[in-house]
Amino acid sequence: MSQKALEYLTENRDRLLTKLNEFLSIPSVSTDSVHKKDVQQAASFLEDYLNELGFENVQKISTSKHPIVFAEYTKAGPNAPTVLLYGHYDVQPVDPIELWVSDPFQPEVRDGRLYARGASDDKGQVFMHLAVFEALLETEGSLPLNVKVCLEGEEEIGSENLYAMLQENKDLFQADFAVISDSGMVAKNQPTILYGLKGFTGIEITVTGPDHDLHSGMYGGAVRNPIMALSHILASMKNEDEVVTVDGFYDGVVGLSDEERELIEQVPGEDFVKATGITETVSEEGYTPKEHTMARPTFEINGIYGGYQGEGTKTIIPTSATAKITCRLVPGQEPVKIQHALEAHVKKVAPKGITVSVKKEKLSAKAYKVEPNHPLIQKAATSYTRAFGKETVYVRMGGSIPVVEWIEDIYNIPIVLLGFGTPEDRLHSPNESFPLDSYDKGMETLIYYWHELNNK
Amino acid sequence: MSQKALEYLTENRDRLLTKLNEFLSIPSVSTDSVHKKDVQQAASFLEDYLNELGFENVQKISTSKHPIVFAEYTKAGPNAPTVLLYGHYDVQPVDPIELWVSDPFQPEVRDGRLYARGASDDKGQVFMHLAVFEALLETEGSLPLNVKVCLEGEEEIGSENLYAMLQENKDLFQADFAVISDSGMVAKNQPTILYGLKGFTGIEITVTGPDHDLHSGMYGGAVRNPIMALSHILASMKNEDEVVTVDGFYDGVVGLSDEERELIEQVPGEDFVKATGITETVSEEGYTPKEHTMARPTFEINGIYGGYQGEGTKTIIPTSATAKITCRLVPGQEPVKIQHALEAHVKKVAPKGITVSVKKEKLSAKAYKVEPNHPLIQKAATSYTRAFGKETVYVRMGGSIPVVEWIEDIYNIPIVLLGFGTPEDRLHSPNESFPLDSYDKGMETLIYYWHELNNK
């Protein structure tokens, strides 16, 4: 039954890739207000495509920042299941731009990979779903199930407006289950079901000293240096054994069972050293790097700045220094409690002579875990294995997708994380790419899956 | 004898201030290659002024970056002493520009202060010397002593070419003593002789981890965070009691005698809290803030950067993090040995999983100390007191002027540090200014001093 749709994809491959490239060429960087119109344009691209497909009720739902694209397909009838398909059409900033081999917004295929910002995260994967709908509609005249589409433009800036919008329009987005393709496989062409995601929270610490930059020769010796004070604070938060030393950080966290350690051991792991160019891995005392990345909480400083950063020297004691911190959380950790624990620690250890302020990131998410033997998960695994010709593995991963927590919270429906990215995709970095293998076999997987789900 | 020259300065005050403003309007920022032509223009301004004054042999001596302006006055004859007058016409960058109340290069007088980048450090003080020469030449027809002028354009970037130039042109700059007006008084209208200056050295530490920014959810737990590693390194270099914890840092440093502690105690000190807006002072355990700033070595982080610094969050493990460090040194400390000690410490404490590199600043200077009872110093104090109507105090200060060490090294002549700045001048910061009181009484001091020196 899937054969004609698969043939359609093969016959129309070049045209569809050209269309995808048109989508990827729009610099929909949501964090930067300069790109506000581009984000709108990416939403319009999706709106047009959904209209072409004959979806009903296609619309941009306005928010205080970037719109959410909604559309539905109801012609599978009341007896067919309804899937809520979530994805995002916004992308990360491209800096440092000078490290890109080709322009991030002029997609280019090199060695079987499509290079562009958003190729993997998440415009490429969103496009695959629409192209599969096109193939099914063109060859079978209808889709095997009903669909509600929710494509947002604020995922990379914390999905600020999504939760409220989903809550206010609960009926509009109501479905039997959700599918999200915004994740990856553990290795290229290795079918992977994500059964757990980490939660997420963050703070920004600013240490303020003198009210203007001071001449280090005139004031050095009388004034606490804000950068040194910040260094002392940060160094007190995680030790060299990669253990977070903030009171309460690990409260509620359950250690790994021997079974789960074994499961993690069996996942074909990435060679971290080779993939990242580091000299050697480091991980939390008592846990392997694979265990730590998949199933233990993490604490990262994402950025730091203060004082003079230009050419040459500037002999000052700067007025302030700031660090941006985010943590990945596991089941048992409450984001808000973690923020409070981090803030309490910072206030406790801050030395005299400076003031310290902690800004709590609004964006937070609890960790998520689903049973690997749920039928929706099992059918996904079957479709995956059929398309890729390889057994599916089940993993927990360090990434956080706040919408997963929210869909669970508002709708209490099963969520299937069906991702086609690979570890080499360089998400959020220069030279993001997506393998065309994943693109082709991923669409094949989706065609099998939608048909599977109609086989009750 | 000085009366006519003083009257000349009063009568020509407006015209000379307009001329000074013309000089200050030239954005001669030496560290920024964008301003290369402006630095040249500032040198040309001085060249023109010296030619107008009838100085001989006026010339710009080219260097690999910014020129040194030379000129001489020999008409006082072989029996009069010859002074080497050193100053600099380059200025610090102006960032953060948004904090300036008025344009840094459009001088403005507010509440008796002249606001402009360079007003105090050092264009304003250089100009005072030339205006005093003008007053003496116009009213007395000659100067009381011979003069060699050395005005450089690279002081704020470490006087890279000055040492070699002084050495190569030793005869040209040979003099009986040197006068430098590139420092300040301990309080406004408080005559101050600097009898000691700190030395100076610096390093830049860069911690490098992964070869591209990593997604913190995919790699957090396996990869050492370069910013956290840098924080651990920095926190290990100075403790919260403001004691530098680097092996060998204090080697050769002589503790303060009770006599010197008393001398320092008697200097009318600045209210550090009021002047800087900090909550309270901090200083090295066992030393007061005044003792630490004047006579103990210091260690400051001048700038730090790494990872994401933009709007919003970016959940990365960054590739690298960098800190710029400079130290102020006291007699007994060798700059090169200090750099080696800092580097050895950094290499010793660097955690595994990252690489660390230490770049040693080329700019270094040994500390300087002169006897307060030298006749050249005593005559300066007399002139100072006569102009300002107040007893002169003798202080050591934290600032470093590499040229002081070099003049001593090459010529072995006494150096008189005759500065007219005030603690409120905000050198190197937004809203730099210079009090017009210092401008007027400073020139009066110079007129008395040049005459004093000819009274043998």
Topology:
Two copies of one chain form a homodimer.
Chain A: H1 3-11, H2 13-24, H3 36-52, E1 56-61, E2 68-73, E3 82-88, E4 108-110, E5 113-115, H4 123-140, E6 146-152, H5 162-168, H6 170-173, E7 177-180, E8 192-197, E9 199-208, E10 214-215, H7 216-219, H8 226-235, H9 258-266, H10 272-276, H11 289-295, E11 298-307, E12 316-317, E13 320-329, H12 335-349, E14 355-360, E15 368-369, H13 375-388, E16 393-397, H14 402-411, E17 415-417, E18 433-435, H15 436-454
Parallel strand pairs in A: 3-6, 3-7, 7-17, 8-16
Antiparallel strand pairs in A: 1-2, 2-6, 4-5, 5-18, 8-15, 9-13, 9-14, 10-12, 11-13
What's the gist of this structure?
Helices cover 35% and strands 21% of the residues of chain A. The first copy, chain A, has 456 residues and is α+β, with helices and mostly antiparallel strands.
Structure, explained:
In chain A, helix 5 (162-168) runs parallel beside helix 14 and helix 13 (375-388) packs across helix 15. Chain A is of the alpha+beta class. The first copy, chain A, is globular. Chain A folds into 2 domains: 3-197 and 367-454, Zn peptidases (Aminopeptidase, 3-Layer(aba) Sandwich); 200-268 and 288-360, Alpha-Beta Plaits, CATH 3.30.70. The longest helix of chain A is centred in the last third of the chain and has 19 residues, at 436-454. The first copy, chain A, has 15 helices and 18 strands. In chain A, the strands form 5 sheets. A 6-stranded mixed beta sheet of chain A has the order 1-2-6-3-7-17, sandwiched between helices. The interface between A and B is large, with 101 and 102 residues. Strand 11 (298-307) of chain A pairs antiparallel with strand 11 of chain B.
